[in-house]
Input
Amino acid sequence: MTTHDVMALLQGTWFAADLGPRALGHLAALGRFEEIPAGTVVVREGLRCDSLGVVISGRIALRLAVPGSPDRTILTVHDGDVFGWSAVLPRPVATSTGVAVVPSSAITFDGPALRAGLAADCELASALFERLLVSVSRRLIATRVQLLDLYQAGAAPW
Amino acid sequence: MTGATCFLPRADLDRLFAALRADDRTILGPAVSDGAVIYDEVASPAELPTGWESDTEPGSYRLRETGSSRAFDYVLPVTSWKRYTHPAFVPLTRARRDGSQVEVEAVLDPPPRLAFVGVRACEIAALDIQERAMRAGPIGDADHAGRRDAALVVAMECAAATSTCFCTSMGTGPEVRQGADLIASELDEGFVIRSGSATGAAMLAGLDLEPADPAQVERAAAQVAAVRTRIGDPVAVEGLPERLRAALDSPRWEQVAERCLACANCTLVCPTCFCTSVGVASDLDGQEATTERHWDSCFSLGFGRVAGDANFRPKVKDRYRQWLTHKFSTWFDQFGSSGCVGCGRCVAWCPVGIDVREELAAIAPVEGPRGPIPWPPAPDAGHAPAALTVVAPARHVTTSVVAVTQETADTATLRLATSDAALLAARPGQFVMVELPAFAAPPISISGIRPDGLDLTIRSAGPATAAIVALGPGAQVALRGPLGRGWPLESAAGRDVVIVAGGVGLAPLRPVIEAVLADRARYGAVRLYLGARTPGDRLFAAEVAALAGRSDLEVAEIVDRAGPEWLGQVGIVTHLFDHATWNGDRVTAFVCGPERMMQATAAALTGRGVDPAAIWLTLERNMACGVGTCGHCQLGPFFVCRDGPVFSIAELGTAFGREGL
Amino acid sequence: MEPQQLIMPGRRSPRADAPNRPRIGIVKFASCDGCQLTLLDLEDELLAVAERVDLVEFAEATSRRSMGPFDVLFVEGSISTAEQVEEIVRLRAVSHRLITIGACATAGGIQAIRNWFELDEVRDTVYPGPTYVESLAQARPVSDFVAVDGELRGCPISPAQLREFLVSMVTGRRAQLPDEAVCLECKRRGVVCVAVADGIPCLGPVTRTGCGAICPAYGRGCYGCFGPRESANTASLAKWFSDSRSAVEVGRLFSGFTAWSEPFRATIDAHGGPPGQRADGSEPRDA
Output
């Protein structure tokens, strides 16, 4: 798959849809398209997070290990959203385990290469971090709402 | 109808009493009891408070004996006439449960024939205002209307005032102009009296009185004019509703809450406050049960209690704000007038002397802002004060459980059979009160409308709902309804439909889905977004799976949390569409779920470009009467039961999700 | 009524053998027995109640005794001695639902007034030979020691509320035990407010309803025997009282059967403590 193909795929996602042409080109050059068969672990909680992925199709479940009981899925990630965002951090340790629950595909970015690329390209860094922040804040909001446990049955006054 | 003004010598007052009794009426009037004037049965003029006057201050009421021969200078009793038109306890139903058989019948006692003697101008206004409140809904309150219609009103213009009076400001007195059968003024030597209705005219004719001397009429007029001067104009009412609307965040609420005892005295002495709660009584086994409504108050914590042990007005400041803004502001939205008549009872009978006049001046100062209005004007003319709706006793229809489907661990769908035309004509989004003898009746949204019955999907969240979902096929349960305004499906014709449901919130939306699919060509794209706590908490799972297989609508589900066996989506319901590519302009959305989820959904939909006037949601409140007369479900200017429970985001304005409303 | 009459062996009604009759016990600690006697006030329905429950422990009416377990255990009285602490912990362990009844069990009762004083002083004042008086330093409500599932307030409790509770227990419905002010009951009954019309200090606005507003109906101020209601604004009421009374008098008004309940307790503290001379002759401190 050519950089041009990767660029087209990225442009079709909300994540990268309105990136400027230069930044998009640079980003596409750093990424590669991957098919992810169902059941593939793309990132593992507590271990080094080697790459950032932007989902093109399918569904990645983010799971937390709960001692004494099965892993719990806390969020699923779909087209346009990212997994492995810890890869852009100085200490890239994954905060959850990402598993493809259906056949999926993604554009993935090698962590060190991406970090080097971002360090060299302020425009790309600013645009990418902005989008990562949107994605992470959306997860934060979701987590807060889930914490409220809104659907939990409360007592009724009758 | 107003004939000549006559003179009734004091010694002949008993002739008026005799005439009222001859008309088969029990005479109620002022009498001294326990250091105050109250309204009570008065057998003869001798029992009137002759020679008593009262002095009131905030938090204080004292009777003073003057030795005068006048009987009506006491100004106002502690009780108001609502004790007789809207009694403290009114029986509602009698119910029986015999094995699986259930029968609930409305109780409507014939109204007593009463004569109210000594009714003040402010009280006539109060009788009218309360009647409008009790008859503004889809069904007027039969008990109240009967009592009001059966009462004969003998008005007595005030010849004295106390420091707590402010009828002049509220435009209700002290002069009596209409609304009474007989209108009298007391002079030392007797009464000038004229009729105000045909009934009054006939009664006056029967008394065969001499015409009043013009000088007497003049003295009576001078008396009441002096009262007007004495009272002055203590409350600036111009723009008051708008000023209060702008003052919802005034720091004064907090300050008055420090003094306010939330004891409810102000609301119970108020002649227009009409809020009630329902009590249930039964034999030991719950086989024979009755319900009655009793006076309640927005000042009690229990009044704002809703499902989930939540409370819409946990703080005293919320409750004081509810009372004051309702009385002086949202009452206009609901009933077209102020809810205050200026009688001052709430001032005098407040145990710590909080003076509503002072609070109004501090909270909503004359020079204060008048906007922005936090909610738009009432949604339609349905609340116009002009027409008093037809009154009818409540209908309690016995239905039979045909089948019970356990949907989740705590939620079941009851399929009920009925041939009742009104129930079968229910519209999507309406609700019914579900009555099982000896239990409180919960309001339940209709989750299916069939040719031969209704579906109710009920979460077992308390004793009453637990008892209902435990019913098996063959068991009976009574329904009152259908109630409320449903989903405006017609407004979605020709448009794309988005349905967002959270948890049990899918239940009231199920009839929407069914109606849309039954007339599929009428709508554009149809998208269904469903959230639930866990995969096991998904409602109507089989039906949803079938829907997902259809090509003419899109279905997406998401859960808050799941184990590894769940391969579907996990996250919050807005994740299903916040990055979607559909065009929000063409969308009409129907939303139901926990209030916080609906807020997030409304925000996400607005973010997708959906018009707030096209985002409809259904609110959960502690609905009891279902027709806007018990006051429980008030939200700003709305009665959720009557004006909703379905509202658009645009209608609710900032009243939606606002703390303490 | 003779004790044997309530549950008569050999003359049990058909219902008496019903398998699911809840096992009920009624026990007492430091109290006067008045609350448990309220059960006997149910007169007309007493036999019907006895048919629907299995009364296994009720010293006032039957000589049957039980160590438990209980489906529902009604507990009267405050916890005032070390033995009582042990016993309530044991009873909690054998009771599915534990319901406290009356001001003593729910609030500490009138005896909790002594909580403001040194135990020795009080003991020496009350008993001529205090050698055998074993007592904790404070008389406290049951909920200070074990979890409580429900409570019936009052001194004594209201027969109507007890009946409502029993009906709710048998039918499975929610008991209607309002937490609102006594004032609502006064106004519904048409009782003229003694505070406003007569200037009588009345705790009705801060006290939980349930008594039927008995005292105001007889021209007396409420003295708070059902304890604080929800949102009891005692500070505001005390301030209003203070306009025409000394701090000591205001403190005394709150020092009744439920004095130890918050916020009554804090209000008493803010006004110099409860009434009563110290053993050493000193007056309680004034605020």
Q: What stands out?
A: The first strand of chain B starts at residue 6 and ends at 9. The longest helix of chain B spans residues 316-335. Chain B touches chain C through 54 residues (CB under 8 Å). The CA atoms of residues 79 and 330 of chain B lie 25 Å apart.
